# Entry
Amino acid sequence: MGRGTSTYDGVSIARAVAEHICTSKKLGCKTLFATHYHELISLENEVDGVNNYSIAVNKRGGTIRFLRKIVRGGVDESYGVDVAKLAGLPTKVINRAKELLNEMEADKSTHIISPHGTEEGQIDFETINRQKIFDILEKTSIDELSDNECRMLLNDLLEIIKE
Amino acid sequence: MNIDRKKVTAMMRQYLEIKDKYQECILFFRVGDFYEMFFDDAITVSKAIELTLTGKDCGLEERAPMCGVPYHAVDTYIKKLVDLGFRVAVCEQLTDPTANKDIVVRDVVRVVTAGTLTETTMLDDSKNNYICSIFYDQFHEVCCMASADISTGEAFLNVMNEKNFETDVINELSRCQPAEIIFPESFLSFKNVADFIKLRLKCTVTLRDEKCFYPSGNRHIIEEVFRKTPEELGISSDGADCSAVCGLFEYINDTQKTSVSRFTTLEILNGNAFMGLDLNARRNLELTETLRNKERKGSLLWVLDSAKTSMGRRLLKNWIEQPLKSPARIIERLDTVDALRRKSVVLYELQNLLTKVYDLERLMTKVMYKRANPRDLKALSATAIQLPFIKKELEKLDNSKLLAKYNNDISGLDEIVKLVEKAITDEPPVAVKDGGVIKDGFNSELDNLRHIMNHGQEIIDDILQNERARTGIKNLKIGFNKVFGYYLEVTRSYYEFIPPEWTRKQTLANAERFITEELKNAENSILGAKDKALSLEADIFNEVRDYLSTMLEKVQRTATAVASVDVLCSFADVAIRNLYVKPEISLDGSIDIKAGRHPVVELMLEDEMFIPNDIYMDNKNNRMSIITGPNMSGKSTYMRQTALIVLMAQIGSFVPANSAKISIVDKIFTRIGASDDLTAGQSTFMVEMSEVADILKNATPDSFVILDEVGRGTSTYDGVSIARAVAEHICTSKKLGCKTLFATHYHELISLENEVDGVNNYSIAVNKRGGTIRFLRKIVRGGVDESYGVDVAKLAGLPTKVINRAKELLNEMEAKWAEEHLLMTE
# Structure
């Protein structure tokens, strides 16, 4: 529910509807709500009576197998590109889609969840931080560190993340 | 039930012997005024069509299960069974039950299957009823499909594309929607086709032995049916094409129990004659029926149908399903429609004449299969009478070559008129056996017999007068009853006047009854005359009917030409009524429509005006239009109307627009709407992706593609990535680059305009004032940011609490995004 419109509108509506069904005194009926909006997963912690479930998937190498078993907990992945590959989309298209997907997941806050469609290649703190951590780890050789030095390194890294 | 054949009655044994030969059919066994079924057939049928199951004594201990139907209503029951996929073998009584002391001779006279119906009561007169035969030659790797409609006499052959034949077979089956398909069992190994037939088509599948297809044993059938050799028809004498045709007609002959030369031509098609439209395109564009209810009303066919004959209606459906690709042929049709439109007086007179034209094709079928009744022949004559007038009108449009050709093909058929008007009475009964079919003066022997019948009473009266005079019995009477026939009756008072040569037959209280040789001779003449007359009428009728069957080729050619004229008149009539314009056919690759309208929607709107829109696409800078905007705003309508206008132009019809320049499109693909094929075990997303994969595989630079929200049904990231990758691929791949309309909610795709050549953004103008939105339904350049999802949800009636909460969440998300961006820029 919430398809057929922009992502923000869709998520807002879906979430508002889910909350309403759960909290309204006139409703509160038993509801099965299938969705792709991972944003709704947080409802489990925020609204009484809501539980997350998902269907177990087995992903090995390049192929996915749907085990069709319901398990507790929400999932992050939706295997859209994998299914598209199964459906027969040309390899070129699949590869390009994966490329775009990686780009977007790397820059989560500048791409998708934007109400306005302008693409601005801005650099955010998260990316900067990641780069810092990468740089540090790259230069580190663990064999040369003592136990104490390891602990200090970890501390430094955590500080960077908290920044 | 254990059936001991030695114990059953003679009739039941006869039944069982015949049933042995027709195991795969339901056997309708004629017994007097009923058709009866026994044993397993009875049980099957009573369940299938809810007939009462009874029993019949058959010589065994248990009664045989039985059900029956009256002979005059048999067609309804056969049709119900055939619709359920059964084959019905009709077994008739061939000898007169009273003539013989032995058991009546019975045999199966025809097998009725879904694809071999000829009875007009079982057919829809606005549609063809096709049977297709598919044959795959493993050695040469060629697949051919032969199809026929035995009720109209059409036969055609499709030679499939070698590499992609499964897709070709599926597309052609989607197009003609056959009632029955036959092929050898080995063909089932082609899973794509087999699955398609099982899941998407509703038809009867009949597996035939491979031998039925082999030319070596069956080639002669082709010559019997068409009266031409395979070479003269244009096919090989032993290839897949010949095999497909052999298999088809071997089967047809098997069901009709006779080789009937109903067909005069075999049309050979390769995949290139018509615009490519797969099952999705046909359904999504609602060419001949609506998506939701599968009704005619609301389809393109419904809009264009102003045909006045059944033949025309069927042909119109075929033309819509097979848009042309040849500019010359398209322009030929358009010019003809134009000519008719300009001389509307001729147009309306033609349509007036056409209303009086009956279904020549199906009538001729009845003639050829010897099932025509007297009224059918009158219908043929009534139709033929109109032909000279139709020809006269056609001559008035001498500037159209196409109409001139059709005029040429239309024979006056006045031999039919002359013969039928001379031979058949003006208002004959339906059945020949009722008499009163042949006119007086046509056959002298018949006239004679009728004279005797009619004047029988005079003859009797003459005898009475003579005998009265001769014997002096003044109150002599002549009576008639079933036991003695005619008799002379004398009362007591005249007993002494009775002549000796009279033979006494009956003594009553006050009278005696006698017969004489003269009286009996007269009686035999009179009664015999009636039977003889009826029998002679039947013979004469058959001769007339059989003479008509020698005119098959002329009638068939006339029928096709008349149907074509009917369709072109229909186009012209609709163009005038709905204010269509003549499209210009261009070769420069561009599609330029000004103020285009959706042909169906504009007719179905009640309270509002349809808002027209322009569209411009070409092969260079305007290949892909990305259309963003809210739902319900008209994106779908806009895309579909473009496809429909192109299609209408390519079938030769005028189009709903102020002007239209159309470059020929070789295929139209559509990926629209939610296809929940859950019964086939696939999710919406999987089905949609398969459809997109299909399009990417089969589209060419000359194709036209409509994509409505590719990427739904999965997570947002996955969806956007796939949508974008697909859009880029279509625009940049050398093998594609076809004109594409891409409607989407992903605002991320708006940036493609600047990044990929040939892409342009469009959106539907929306007016938002205060809290309400109005969709202006006008296409404008540029993408939109907002999608008004929450506004539409409010319009739809979601409770205010929910709408307010949604707005709250929306603002939160937008604020968070803005915050993160502001942070960056600081």
About this structure: The first helix of chain B runs from residue 10 to 21. Chain B touches chain A through 66 residues (CB under 8 Å).
